[in-house]
Amino acid sequence: MLRLVMGMVGAGHAMAVPGNHENKLVRALRGRNVKVSHGLAETLEQLSAEGEEFTREVELFCDGLVSHLVLDGGRLVVAHAGLKEEYHGRASGRVRSFALYGDTTGETDEYGLPVRYPWANDYRGRAMVVYGHTPTVDPEWVNNTICVDTGCVFGGRLTALRYPERELVSVPAEREWYQPVKPLRPAGEDRRGPGELDLTDVTGRRVVATAHHGRITVREDQAAGALEVMSRFALHPRWLIYLPPTMAPCPTSARPEFLEHPDEAFHAYRGAGVTRVVCEEKHMGSRAVTLVCRDERVARDRFGADPGVTGAVYTRTGRRFFDAERTEQLLARVRAAADRAGLWAELDAAWLLLDGELLPWSAKAEDLLRQQYAAVGAAARSALPAAVAVLRRASDRGLDVADLLARTRSRAANAEAFTRAYRGYHWPTDGLSGVALAPFQVLASDRAGYETQDHGWHLAIADRLAAADPDLLRGTRRLPVDLDDPASTAAAVSWWEELTGTGGEGMVVKPAANLVHGPRGLVQPGLKVRGREYLRLVYGPDYLEPGNLDRLRQRHLGRKRSLALREYALGLESLRRAVAGEPLWRVHEPVFAVLALESEAVDPRL
């Protein structure tokens, strides 16, 4: 084995790190007083038969190995016993000791072996850490770390990790080469159960490592606010494997009478290196995440569901939309539509997670519509026409009220436009009658996450679902756009004008390829471009008045964009962990972080 490893390293075909046994061997070869145990006697005997020259080569080779390897630009760290983040890329006696022996408590167990502190449970670093030292039956990912020592010498298996695919490959040992002092145990035997949560996972200041946007910090006050919502109002965390991110608007337009315009979104994506986008109709409803299982057995085995429960339909903050009966009625129809569309078989899926919009807006926001929008509209329609009538009579009597009359007439017209805007998003519902679900993305299944599938793929599936149950499910109108073609972008602007001119909220512009990294990192997954009339609901009936519009153009978008990217990356991370079968507390960590970031002080109108 030594000849093989030394030869591969010497030829440049492999890299190696030292372990505690290599360190002990070097000390023994140098005449130090070491305890000859754990196979050292056999190694020394075999080396003596090889001669002094080879023995000296072994000594120099083992002594010259660095404590750990930092690879792939800091994304991968390899150390014999693992390594805490603060030691990555550093050299000292303490770092080398940790890399060789791990983190021990100073105590010994009933087998006389050191009691090891589970450092991986506290690891929150960006780099993946691959290590060995402590043999286990089955490798298990813990906080982006994995132990690949599966006890080959003890008759177990020899395991390798393919990077960056995160795939494990193993072969069985020919036989038991050495009797273990301590029986091998499954990796998770001494840790919490897969469905067990701990308050300390989410309280205080937290740093969540994500695959696509580095480390994301959650402040203590943000975590406290999220804990209040999660514990009082949200679904059981076992269903919350994902929360959707907020979305930033396009850059502010300088065009007269426009605060948002498609050209600004197109310009922003060109600047990020994106040449093809898709414009999707923005449904004026409530963001809805639908987790539907193929049957009750899957729901029970995968999510620990109670009898009769086959999934969940929930809001951006993890709250249920409907009572249990209506939820199951909706899930049954989505499940049947997926079956008729051939989706279960095509994806070989046991469960599906869909992102979409639940319509109408009034189905979830009835009180908001009545108390905020309808009240404003009713008050304005009651007061302003009467004011116009009074001012008209005053003008007829020769009073100089022309300017005031013109302003009041304009305000009355604005109030009528405001009322028309919100009425388009309200219609009566009875149970599921009148309710519509518009899915626009297949987020994940038990087989995979689908963030690398282009939006054309996702929207085609949405069309198939809508065709399978047109009374409940809706497709999404869209238009692909080539940003390098002026005719294509002009057609998209016309499409948006027609969409918003007939009562539509607006559109969302997304990179056609879906998940995109540009020169400056992760690219915004979507930019909303809302219509002139819809924005009356956001900024008030009179927002288009010149003085108001000039003031609103000073809105600051940087914080909103940053928040959208961080929440997007956290959502991708929770999906990655869920699909990989990681424990609930690991999946819940980025989900909780999304909810925590929602308490950040950002203009809610954006």
From TrEMBL:
<dbReference type="InterPro" id="IPR041780">
    <property type="entry name" value="MPP_PrpE-like"/>
</dbReference>
<protein>
    <recommendedName>
        <fullName>Polynucleotide kinase-phosphatase ligase domain-containing protein</fullName>
    </recommendedName>
</protein>
<dbReference type="InterPro" id="IPR050126">
    <property type="entry name" value="Ap4A_hydrolase"/>
</dbReference>
<dbReference type="Pfam" id="PF16542">
    <property type="entry name" value="PNKP_ligase"/>
</dbReference>
<dbReference type="InterPro" id="IPR024028">
    <property type="entry name" value="PNKP_bac"/>
</dbReference>
<dbReference type="InterPro" id="IPR032380">
    <property type="entry name" value="PNKP_ligase_dom"/>
</dbReference>
<feature type="domain" description="Polynucleotide kinase-phosphatase ligase">
    <location>
        <begin position="226"/>
        <end position="600"/>
    </location>
</feature>
<dbReference type="InterPro" id="IPR029052">
    <property type="entry name" value="Metallo-depent_PP-like"/>
</dbReference>
<dbReference type="GO" id="GO:0005737">
    <property type="term" value="C:cytoplasm"/>
</dbReference>
<dbReference type="GO" id="GO:0016791">
    <property type="term" value="F:phosphatase activity"/>
</dbReference>
